[in-house]
Amino acid sequence: MKVRRESTFLWYSANADALQELLGFLYAECCTRNKATEPKAIVQVCT
Predict the structure, then answer these.
(1) Residues 6+ apart with CB under 8 A from 2
(2) What pLDDT score was predicted for residue 6?
(3) What residue spans define the domains of the chain?
(4) From the CB of residue 42, how many other CB atoms can be counted at a distance below 10 Å?
(5) Which residue has better confidence, 6 or 46?
(6) How far, in Å, CA of 42 to CA of 27, rounded?
């Protein structure tokens, strides 16, 4: 997660690279073994 301060506000944004790496790991460890989801569904989430 990235945080940016602007005056009294904090702006949070997701770290897209880390999220993509996590989704890739989870997909490889879980979804390909038991075929819980189609690969196309994961690609749509990541793009």
Answers:
(1) 12, 13, 14, 15
(2) 92
(3) 15-47
(4) 16
(5) 6
(6) 8
